[in-house]
Structures are given as C-alpha cells and as structure tokens.
Amino acid sequence: MYNFDVVRPTSVDEAVKALGGEEAQALGGGQTLIPTLKQRLAMPATLVSLSGIAELQGVSEEGGALVVKGATVHRAVAEAAADSFPALSDLAGRIGDPAVRNRGTIGGSLANNDPSACYPSAALATGATIVTNTREIAADDYFQGMFTTALEEGEIITAVKLPIPEKAAYIKFEQPASRFSLVGIFLAKYADGVRVAVTGASNDGVFRWSEAEEALSSNFSADAVDGLSAPDGSNMISDLHGSGAYRAHLVKVLTKRAVAQAR
C-alpha cells in the first residue's frame, strides 16, 4: 500500500466537492478498490468515503420500483427485497461472502462495472434507472463495456430504481474461489415482455440476449429457449476457468434454468 488521504463527507454535496480535488476517487465499500490500491493499479491521492452519508443508504418501494440508495450494502438489499423482489434478494444474498456483503455497495458495484459482477445484470434486465447527483441514466445507456460506464468524472450514484417484475430469477454459475459469476443470468418478465441480461461471459461486459428475449416474450417456457442457438462464443471471455465456447453454452443452459425458477 502507499500513503493517501481519506475524506469522510456527511452529505452528497460535501462528497462532490471533495471529488473535485486533484487525484480524488470515491470509495464505496472498497471491495474492489482496496485490492486495486494494494496492487498499485490505481493510486489516487485522496479517497472520498461515501459510507457515512445517511442520504445514500436505504431501500424503499416507489411507483412499482424498488429504490436502492447508492451506498446500501448487499446484506441490506438482500433483507429489504426478500418479500417484494425475491430474485434481487437472492442475487444480493449470494455475492461474495458475509464480509463482502456487509461492506460492498450496489453503487460501488455498478460504478466499477466488473464484467463478472452480479448487480449489472439485475440493472440491465429490469431496465433500471441509475440516479446520480446530476441526472438519471437508463441502464441500456449506462453500461458501455468492460469496466466502462456513462458516469462522468466526479459523478456519484445516489440511487438505483429497479422496476419490480411479474416474475424474475437470477441463476449464477459461480467461480468457486471468488464467487464471481463465470456466467450469470438475470431474467425479468413484465407485462410488455421479457428481458434477459448476461454477466460474466462477454469481453464487452454485461449484455442483453435479444434472441432469448424475443422468444420468451412470445412463449415464456424453457421450450422456447431450446430452439435457440447459443450466443456467439468468439467474443466471450476465455480463461483458465472456462473457454468462450463453454461460457456461450452456459448462457443457454442457465437461461432455461432461470425460466424454470421464475415460473
């Protein structure tokens, strides 16, 4: 590690002001950032901790959506969503281990946009709205590639609005050491159709499987997925845990399981 300053603002306005300083970076739960600092892959001069800002914590229901404040930890999401949005509760309750779930935040996960993280699939599958200190961003516009989002310098995620679906499921094929998704499928069924988001598989990060969405919107059954070809594996992540072709195969298998679980 190296020497750096830590600022602990108590309001979003104070945090935004602190982030305007030279070489300042926001710190959510630190589950990704702290290991990055240890490896000297990032070396900000100042960390601006968001964990002490009360207005960035909490979960509520508003207008048919679950609104999760940006600094809400995974454990709190799992508990709060258990009745109203079980699939999201299941997702949050299986991230990492208890230590991670008690520190990691939804805003930190979405801001980092790790290609194998769980929350991006929930945001994309539900057509969520990412709320920042300056604007609202539709999930379809927010995710722009591996570790890349629409966030601008100094912009903070203050809340995430996730429309509650009629039916939903999250199926994750875990990498057993990290508990990240080797492939994860979040499926959400609404009155106007089905959305299927895939995480852990693509070099471009989280994406929607449009062919499955079209088929399932017409016929919400595992049989509808049977007739589809697996996504093209040429742009899938290929590493020691699994080839691109294997990940492409898992996308189809896990989507079928998600349909069965959602039913």
From TrEMBL:
<keyword id="KW-0560">Oxidoreductase</keyword>
<dbReference type="InterPro" id="IPR016166">
    <property type="entry name" value="FAD-bd_PCMH"/>
</dbReference>
<feature type="domain" description="FAD-binding PCMH-type">
    <location>
        <begin position="1"/>
        <end position="167"/>
    </location>
</feature>
<dbReference type="InterPro" id="IPR016169">
    <property type="entry name" value="FAD-bd_PCMH_sub2"/>
</dbReference>
<dbReference type="InterPro" id="IPR016167">
    <property type="entry name" value="FAD-bd_PCMH_sub1"/>
</dbReference>
<dbReference type="InterPro" id="IPR002346">
    <property type="entry name" value="Mopterin_DH_FAD-bd"/>
</dbReference>
<dbReference type="InterPro" id="IPR036683">
    <property type="entry name" value="CO_DH_flav_C_dom_sf"/>
</dbReference>
<dbReference type="InterPro" id="IPR005107">
    <property type="entry name" value="CO_DH_flav_C"/>
</dbReference>
<keyword id="KW-0285">Flavoprotein</keyword>
<dbReference type="Pfam" id="PF00941">
    <property type="entry name" value="FAD_binding_5"/>
</dbReference>
<keyword id="KW-0274">FAD</keyword>
<dbReference type="InterPro" id="IPR051312">
    <property type="entry name" value="Diverse_Substr_Oxidored"/>
</dbReference>
<dbReference type="InterPro" id="IPR036318">
    <property type="entry name" value="FAD-bd_PCMH-like_sf"/>
</dbReference>
<protein>
    <submittedName>
        <fullName>FAD binding domain-containing protein</fullName>
    </submittedName>
</protein>
